[in-house]
Amino acid sequence: MQKPVEGFSKFSKEEKIEWLADHYTDNADETKKILARYWNTDMSVQKLHDEFIENTLSNYYLPFAIAPNFLINGQLYAIPMAIEESSVVAAASKAAKFWLSRGGFKANVIDTEKVGQVHFFYHGEKNRLFAFFEEIEDTLMIAAKTITRNMEKRGGGVKSITLRDKTDALDGYYQLHCTFETLDAMGANFINSCLEQFATTFKEAAHDLGEIEITMSILSNYVPKCTVRVEVSCPLSALNEDDMPPETFAKKMVQAIQIAKSDPYRAVTHNKGIMNGIDAVVLATGNDFRAVEAGVHAYAAKDGTYSSLTHAEIENELFTFWMEVPLALGTVGGLTSLHPMVKLALEILQNPSARELMQIVAVAGLAQNFAALRSLITTGIQKGHMKMHLLNMLNQMGATEKEKEKLIDYFKTNIVSNASVKEALENVRNGHHD
Ligand code: MEV
């Protein structure tokens, strides 16, 4: 039985590793070796990572890749992606190439409104509270001026504060529901600072009203008015690359989406595929993928049941495939100027504004869904998936570079499965593939 540790965060990194190795792993030397192998040799980079979070012991790498040939609103992008799943970048690149010769992706930002709320309880007279709010609204804005001044100079700031009566949900529950324009910043710190100031000023000014009990002040990651629309379309006849008549291909694409619209089991997986693309770019550009995930999935359920984020139609011989998603992203602040790989990712994207990044990220999501559905309705997903996974399997089985070369060639025409790869590797080792 382990004992709790006191003052762990004050230990040096070496002491933390020593303690961990002694208490929670079987082989202390091996633990230390693995952690040390992932330290960055550049001490300044390592220090940066050490200071991102508390109790850093080492780094956790994800592959950083590029999916080239994305034509978005007439401009070509190579999209940086950070992700561990074998087939995601290959699928994105394939979809980019497919649409490159068919007009590319069209993207436009619909709105960029962020949201934050002060949640509080008040058990006095409702009318008095609303009358008081009318009086105090300007004071709230003025009290936050030191926080909002710079953002306002750039054209952003607090857009609105409304008092919302939530007493139907909970006895005495009200909100200051606030909306913000945070321009190129994701804005979490800005929004939370404004909200905490609103809460303090509101409570102070309300002393004649009776008890206002502030529960909390926090931004919302549900941003249904911070959305971007992305679309591809082409004549039916141009859907001619697969071993399937274009009309059948288009019809099956539409069916696949109708299925995801009618069944949450399928919708979740369908949308997960979209998030493969979205998260990879969100991560590479140093944005908060948990915030994006939470907001996107809530949006997928906005009409009462969880549904497909993408849509498709065939009209007048034209196939159109599109998506509208909420994305609260930043290209300034946070990790964007701190993490060297994030800075590079943004440079690769030509230092986009937050609005441009919303378009690029959403395109990566739409492309990923197109690639997934295209495989699913034609060859099935496993063919491409297992091909991409082959190297992982071979590495896991300890194959040498020479053995890998032979087997990659062999599996160009053979079906990849765990058993078939194992058998083929044994055959190579026994000289049967020479
Ligand atoms: C795998 O990561 C994603 C897919 O399952 C998405 C889908 O089924 O649409 C292939």
Descriptive report:
This protein is α+β, with helices and mostly antiparallel strands and 434 residues long. It has four domains: 8-44, no CATH class; 64-108 and 232-379, Alpha-Beta Complex (3-hydroxy-3-methylglutaryl-coenzyme A Reductase, Chain A, domain 2); 114-220, 2-Layer Sandwich (Alpha-Beta Plaits), CATH 3.30.70; 384-429, no CATH class. 49% of the residues lie in helices and 19% in strands. The protein is built from 15 helices and ten strands. The protein has helices at 13-24, 28-37, 43-52, 88-100, 126-143, 145-153, 188-205, 246-262, 264-284, 289-300, 340-348, 354-377, 381-396, 401-410, 418-429, and strands at 64-72, 75-82, 106-109, 114-122, 157-165, 173-181, 212-220, 227-235, 310-315, 318-326. The strands form three sheets. The chain has a four-stranded antiparallel beta sheet with strand order 3-8-10-9. The protein has a four-stranded antiparallel beta sheet with strand order 5-6-4-7. Helix 8 (246-262) packs across helix 9 (264-284). The protein starts with 12 loop residues before the first helix and ends in a 5-residue tail after the last helix. The mean pLDDT is 96. (R)-mevalonate binds at residues 85, 269-270, 272-273, 276, 372, 376, 381.
